[in-house]
C-alpha cells in the first residue's frame, strides 16, 4: 500500500522532482568552477544559482511566463544545499572527476525534459518545445561560462546541445506513440544522458563545415 | 494584371518579406564567422540563428510580446537555407568580401525598419520605436560576437548603430510628411544602408570624447 | 509653508527622485569607463545608458512589467546630462577618484531600494524583493563590464552584491517594525552605501571556499 503511494506520488510529481535533481546537479557544477576560480562563497552561490536556473529563466521569459524560481523558494534552498554539500564533500567530489561529468549529463537530460513539458503545457507546438528543451538544458552552462569568464565551449565540444534536440525528437515520438508521461519523460531524459555520455566517452564530434 | 497583383502582394507583405531577407543576410554573416572559428555545422547553424533573431528577440521581450520567430518556423528554415547556401557557395562568398559587408548592411537597414514598425504597431511613441529599430538592427551582431568570443566592435567601428538612429529619424520624418508605408519603409531602410556603406567606404568615425 | 511642501513633495516622490539620482551616478560610471576605452561619444552614451538602466531592465523583465525607461524619456535625458557633465568636468572628476567610487556606491544603494519597492508593489514576497534589489543594483555594472570587454569583477571584489542583500534585510526589518516608507527607504539605502564604503575602505572581502 505504502510503496504504491510512493510510486503514485513520484509519477504525479515527476516534473517537480527531476527539476530539483537537475537544479542540484547544475548548481554543483557551477559552484565547483567558481570555487576553482577563487570566488568567495557568496560568488560561488550566485554562480551555482545562475547555472541552475539560467536556462529555465530564459525559457520562461521567451514563453512569457513568470520565471519558475520566483514562484517557489525551493530552488534557492537546493542551491544552498549544493554549496554546503560541495564544501563538505569537496575532496571526494574533486577526486571523482567522472562524478562531476555525470552530474552535468544528468542535469542536461532532466532539464531538457522539463523544458519540453512546460512549453507543451503552454500550448506551443513540438518544434518550439524541442528548442525550449535545448535552451533549458544548455543556457545555464553558457551563462556560467560567461560569469566565470571562460569561453562558452558548448558549440565546439562533443555533442551537447544536439543531445537535447535528440531527446526532444524522442519525446515527440513517444508522445505520438501514446506512451504515458512518466515513460515519455524517462525515455527522453535517458536519451539525452546516454548520447552525452557516449559522445564524451568516444570523443564523438560533429564535422566542421568543409 | 498579374504584375499589379505582385506589386500589391509585395506592398501588403513588405514587412514579412524584408524580415526574411534580413534574416538570410544576418544568418549568412553569423554562419561565416562561426565556420571561420572551426565551429561544427550545428554550432554554425545556432550562431547564424542567434545573429538573425537576436535583435528582434530582445526587442520583443522589451515590448512584452511573443518573440516573432516562435510564431512561425520560417525563420528556422531561412537560417537552414543560409547555412546550405554558404556551404555550397563558400568559395564564391569568401572571395567577394564586399558581398558579406553588403549583406550585413542590407540586414541592418531592413531590420531597423521592421523594429520601428513593430513598435509603432504596439502603440509605442516614436522615440521608443527608434531605439527598438536600433536594437533590432544591432543586437544580433553583438550576441554573435559574444557567442564566438570576439570583442563586440559595434561601439568603436565606423558608424553602425547610429545609422539605425538616422534611419529612425528619417522614418519619423516620412511619417509626418504623410508618405505611404512602403515608401516610408523603403526610404528609411535605404538611409541606413547608404550611411553604413559610405561610413565604411570613407572610414567615417565619430569623434571620441576629448 | 513652502518648505513643508518641498518635504511633502520629496516624500511623495522619493522613489522617482532617487531613481534619477541613481541613474545619473551609474551613467557617469559607465561613460567614464567607455571614454577611457576610446569609445566614441555615441558609444559612451550607450554604455552609460546600459549601466544606468541594465539592472532595472532585467528586474522588470523578470517581474513581467514594461521596462521602466520605456515609460518615460527622462532616463535618456538624465544619461545625456551625465555625458555632457562628464565631458565638461572630466578633469575634475578624474582627479577625484574617490568621487567616482562614491557615485557608484550611492547608485548601488538607491537602485537597491527602488528594486525592492517595485517588487513589493507588484505583490511579490520579501525574498523576491531582496533578490530584485540586488539585481537592480548590480546587473547594470555587469552589463557595462561585458560591453567594454572587462571581466565582471562583481563576484570577487570587496563586498558588493552582498551589500544589496544586507540593505534588503534592513528594509524588511524596518517594514515589520512599522517605519514609514521614506525612513525605510533612507535607512536601507544608507545601509548599502555605508557597507560598500567600509568594505572598500578596509578591503573587507568574504572568505573563499576552503
Average of the residue pLDDT scores of chain A: 86
How many distinct folded domains of chain A? 1
Radius of gyration of chain A: 17 Å
Shape of chain A: globular
- What is the helix content of chain A? over 70%
Biggest interface reads: A-B, 20 and 25 residues
Major sheet size, sense and barrel closure of chain A: none
- Oligomerization category of the chains in this entry: homotrimer
String of helices and strands of chain A: HHHHHHHH
Question: Distance between the terminal alpha carbons of chain A, to the nearest Å?
Answer: 61 Å
Structural class of chain A: mainly alpha
Q: Which spans of chain A of ≥5 residues are poorly predicted at pLDDT below 50?
A: none
Beta fraction of the residues of chain A? under 5%
How many strands in all of chain A?
0
Number of helices of chain A: 8
In short:
3 copies of one chain form a homotrimer. The first copy, chain A, is 78% helix and 0% strand.
Account of the 3D structure:
3 copies of one chain form a homotrimer. The longest helix of chain A is centred in the middle third of the chain and has 25 residues, at 97-121. In chain A, 78% of the residues lie in helices and 0% in strands. Chain A starts with a helix and ends in a 9-residue tail after the last helix. Chain A has helices spanning 2-12, 14-36, 41-63, 74-95, 97-121, 126-147, 161-176, 181-201. The first copy, chain A, has one domain (2-201). The A-C interface holds A 34-35, 38-44, 46-47, 57, 61, 66-67, 70, 73, 76, 86-87, 90, 146-147, 149 and C 61-62, 64, 124, 127-128, 146, 151-152, 154-156, 161-162, 205-210.
